Amino acid sequence: MKNINDWVGNQITHSETIYQHQLDGVAALLNENVPAPGIVKPGGHWMYFLPADAQNSLGPDGHATKGGFLPPIELPRRMWAGSRLRFHAPLQVGERAEKISTVKSVTPKEGRTGNLVFVTVEHEVKNENGLCIVEEHDIVFRDAPTADNRPKQPQLAPTDGEWNRVIEPDPVMLFRYSAVTFNSHRIHYDREYCIAEEGYPGLVVHGPLLGTLLMRLAEEKMDRSLKAFTFRNFNPIFDTASFTLSGKVDGENKCTVWVAGPDGALAVSATAEF
Fold first, then answer.
1. Contact 159, 136 (CB under 8 A)
2. 41 with 34: CB under 8 angstroms?
3. 173 SS3 class
4. Could you read off the pLDDT of 29-46 as tens digits, one per residue?
5. Which pLDDT belongs to residue 99?
6. DSSP 8-state code for residue 204
7. Less crowded by CB within 10 Å, the N or C end of the chain?
8. Mean pLDDT across the chain
């Protein structure tokens, strides 16, 4: 059997036409006005270039069985750990574009609750004029917690936000985001699976949905177009209580934004550059 590091350099390419339908869907989800045909907003690229794995190739968690593009890591939990994005040029509705995804690194670690493996994938999104977006996406695979694992004291979110917006998640919101991103990971829509199999108290709000909400907040408050955005997920957010988006100016061309859970714990921390 291959070593998981043999997957470094593995590459796949998806290409498709950028259609308006996906943008209308995410606008409805976020209670935004339906955009006129034109530019894809930050975070909108996650609605395109989606894998269409056969139903009989899915694992128990709803993801494709590992060992294809991603290495066959024998750990039961998978989460979006964070991303680093740079925006070079906008994607336009109606054009043909492609995404080239490359496994850049596979890094095993020992965590407080057991084994961890971080996989970093680089995505390059291009149109006929050249490079549009470069994203480094960190995925973490981890052991399931045991009864001996004591929850750590969470890091508290900052309390000096200049902007604050409360979001009320619910199963319909999470289902619609899963639908528009063709995401079959059961932690986002199957409550019984979440509680019985993965030990969560409720449905997990998608990492890229939280990232999209923070990008929207940053662009709205700074009234400028993003050049770069980096976010890291610290703690999951569930559909069982509201959460808060916050942010503040952090220099002439920069702001800091974050997500705080209902108990004040830091869930996501991000920086936006303009």
1. no
2. no
3. helix
4. 999 887 667 889 999 999
5. 98
6. B
7. N
8. 92
Paired residues of 248 in beta bridges: 256
162: domain range? 4-273
Q: Give the pLDDT confidence of 179-236 residue by residue, as tens digits.
A: 999 999 999 999 999 999 998 999 999 999 999 999 999 999 999 999 999 999 999 9
Does 1 score more than 60 pLDDT?
A: no
Indicate if the pLDDT at residue 148 is higher than 70: no
Token pair in block for residue 270: 């991000």
CATH of residue 127: 3.10.129.10
- Region for 114 from its dihedrals, namely left if φ exceeds 0, alpha if ψ lies in -120 to 50, beta otherwise: left
The residue type at 211: G
- Cα–Cα dist 255/202, whole Å: 31
Spatial separation of the C-alpha atoms in residues 268 and 259, rounded to whole Å: 5
User: Which pTM value belongs to this model?
Assistant: 0.92
Given a contact cutoff of 8 angstroms between Cβ atoms, the answer to whether 216 and 43 are in contact is yes
d(CA 48, CA 14): 9
Total domains present in the chain = 1
Helices (H), ranges, the chain: 20-29, 171-180, 191-198, 207-222
Q: What is the pLDDT of residue 35?
A: 65
Contact yes or no for 55/64 (Cβ under 8 A): no
Q: What are phi and psi of 227, to 5 degrees?
A: -105, -35
Rg over CA atoms, the chain: 18
